[in-house]
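Dear Dr. H.,

I hope your travels went smoothly. While you were away I took the liberty of generating a structure for the chain from your last submission, since the lab meeting agenda had it listed for discussion. I wanted you to have the full record in hand beforehand rather than looking at slides cold. The sequence, exactly as received, is reproduced here:
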Amino acid sequence: MYCRNCGEQVDPNAKVCVKCGSETLKGKYYCNNCGQATDENASICSKCGIALKNVGSRSKMVAGLLGLFLGSLGVHRFYLGYIGIGILQIVVTIVTCGIGSLWGFIEGILILVGNFDKDFDGNNLAD
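The corresponding predicted structure, in token form, is as follows:
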């Protein structure tokens, strides 16, 4: 495995590159599979064909719609992996007799327009 930031070969179990100090899968200059220098906007390595973008399996559209329609229950936060905030949204909605449901509704809009783009694990949301 190679560091995506500096291209140095790293142990597959390493979380941080010892040469540059960045997280091993964070960065955009080298392929983590073959070490080939890549264009920073490339989504696939031209040498080995591996996907370079860290795109998760969670959808931005699904998260946004869950926020719009079920945001008062924090369902969109549970979907994105933010369990604690999801529970907090339920509590706020109950304590405020439903007024707190605006929080989830507004977050649903923000997800759809692109202000939220990562899940709890740091993966980009799929379009």
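Two observations you may find useful: The chain has a mean pLDDT of 88. The CA atoms of residues 21 and 74 lie 36 Å apart.

With kind regards,
E. W.
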